[in-house]
Specification:
Elements: H1 8-25, H2 27-45, H3 50-80, H4 86-118
Length: 119
């Protein structure tokens, strides 16, 4: 069995450092976080049901997590191969596409939840 050199507390500390670093340095992440906060405000305003809250929070987590992974993949790809390379472009495009797909589905779910409440 391979054991980590770091304690569980250290692992959590590193993870939180990654989250804070991401939001400090990633413009798209801050935009998506802002959209998530607005959505949470709307959910409070419209007194969403528990299933609606679960859907909203899962969508926010999904989009932010996808953006964080996309950012990490792009940073790693740029470090491994700084010059243009067709395979690196493909990897970056697919990662960005995953964020876009999560975002589109989240917007659709948001419309399903909020559109009737606006009517």
């Amino acid at each position: 069995m391979i054991r980590s050199k770091h304690s569980l507390a250290a692992a959590f500390r590193f993870a939180f450092q990654g989250i804070f670093h991401f939001f400090q340095h990633d413009r798209n992440g801050r935009i998506e976080l802002g959209c998530g906060i607005i959505t949470i405000g709307l959910a409070f305003w419209f007194q969403c049901s528990s299933p609606e809250w679960m859907s909203i929070l899962l969508c926010i987590a999904l989009v932010l997590s996808a953006e964080m992974l996309n950012s990490a993949i792009e940073k790693l790809a740029d470090t491994v191969h700084p010059a243009y390379h067709e395979n690196i472009k493909w990897v970056k495009d697919v990662a960005a596409g995953a964020v876009l797909l999560c975002s589109i589905i989240s917007v659709i779910i948001g419309l399903v939840i909020f559109l009737p409440k606006f009517m």
